[in-house]
Amino acid sequence: MARGKRYDEAFKIETVKYISENNKAVAQVAREIGVNENTVHGWVKRYGQQPEIKAVKSFSSDVAELKALQKEIRDLKGENEILKKAMHYFAKSPR
């Protein structure tokens, strides 16, 4: 049985970046580049979690961006509280 065409890793990563940057459907991009849709889904699953690609992903709506920013604020406030408690603990003079 013949194996399918092999694509280099750089092509796969660029395809996933393109999907993330342009907020396009995987099926549409797969048709554009002439690759099976399931293959492209596999690339997204494999390479979509890499830090450089995660940073590229744009928010699909203002609501999603707002929720993400609110979560980040909550996380940072929690971290600040922990640091304040640690500061008070270490600032106590031993008697």
TrEMBL record:
Organism's domain of life? Bacteria
Q: Which GO terms describe its molecular function?
A: DNA binding; transposase activity
Pfam families annotated for this entry? HTH_Tnp_1
SUPFAM superfamilies from the UniProt entry: Homeodomain-like
By its UniProt entry, which InterPro entries does this protein fall under?
Homeodomain-like_sf, RD_transcriptional_regulator, Transposase_8
What's a GO biological-process term for it? DNA transposition
Stated name of the protein:
Transposase
